[in-house]
Amino acid sequence: MYEQLVDYFLSQPRRLVALGRALLNLGGLLAVSAAVAHAATGAASIVRGIGGGDRSSVMLAELLPGLPTWWVPESAPGLYIAALIAFGGIAALRTGRMYERLLGQGRTAGL
Question: Are the CB atoms for 93 and 21 separated by under 8 Å?
Answer without folding.
Answer: yes
